[in-house]
Specification:
alpha/beta, single chain, 5 helices, about 170 residues, Nucleotidyltransferase, domain 5
Length: about 170
């Protein structure tokens, strides 16, 4: 059975939530900035954002976190906390969910995109590649929370994670 909504979540302070609706509502795309109070995850707002989908045919998809090169212990703890909170909210709302490695969704969503590297010439530039993929798949979609601002990395990743979910679940 095809789901009605696919909810992609990019974890992090600058993360986002993107809801893609399937046919016939294909154009109903809802972006939500990761709800934060200062540097803390706003659990009540996150719960309320997902509670709307309780009882609907939906699927939540978010990243399985691994070690991020160069990140601090505080950042790692914060992101792990967010992942646990999202999973607990999905369980409490009885929303089906899948946790996927970044390399898995990126492999599918980056198909046909030239491998780009950061200015050091060594590190893969997944942010640039994600922006290219998002613009190819959703050419008319505003990729920031306010018109005219530069594209929001968290929103782009959440969009691609939701699209990955739509294709696979």
């Amino acid at each position: 059975m095809k789901k009605e909504f696919y909810i992609g979540i990019d974890i992090g302070k600058n993360g986002a939530i993107m809801i893609l609706a399937s046919e016939p509502y294909l154009k109903a795309i809802s972006p939500i900035a990761m709800p934060m109070i200062n540097k803390e995850l706003d659990l009540q707002s996150l719960y309320k954002a997902l509670e709307v989908y309780k009882g609907s045919q939906c699927h939540v998809i978010f990243e399985k976190l691994g070690v991020i090169y160069g990140s601090s212990k505080t950042t790692a703890f914060s992101m792990g906390y967010q992942a646990g909170a999202i999973e607990a909210i999905c369980i409490s709302l009885q929303l089906p969910y899948t946790i996927v490695h970044a390399k898995v969704w990126q492999k599918e969503m980056f198909q046909g995109i030239k491998e780009l590297t950061k200015t050091n010439g060594k590190t893969r530039d997944t942010k640039a590649m994600a922006l290219i993929a998002a613009k190819r798949l959703f050419p008319d979609l505003e990729l920031s929370f306010k018109k005219g601002l530069k594209p929001h990395d968290g929103l782009i990743d959440a969009l691609l994670i939701a699209e990955y979910g739509k294709r696979n679940f």
